[in-house]
Design a protein that fits this description.
82 residues, elongated, mainly alpha
Length: 82
């Protein structure tokens, strides 16, 4: 059972980080990429929540079905990295 009961609803990457730790005998060095991904996702979705709250859109964290569209829209406006 996931540690955070709402992990899938909130940020699925959190549960992936826990799984990595379990699979690698809690060696944090082997899971750094999962931690970085989780932190990036958490930061992104917190910005989305703040923006939606300011606009009066509920729920503040969009349902899973809407998230792919929100991420795609964000990626369109993001500058390309080289």
């Amino acid at each position: 059972m996931p540690r955070n009961q709402n992990a899938e609803r909130d940020i699925p990457e959190q549960e992936l980080s826990f799984k990595c730790l379990n699979q690698n005998n809690f060696d944090r060095d082997k899971c750094e990429i999962y931690f970085a991904n989780y932190n990036n996702c958490k930061e992104f979705w917190n910005k989305v929540k703040i923006e939606r709250r300011a606009k009066g859109i509920a729920p503040y964290l969009p349902p899973l079905a809407e998230r792919d569209g929100i991420k795609a829209e964000y990626m369109k406006g993001k500058p390309q990295q080289s």
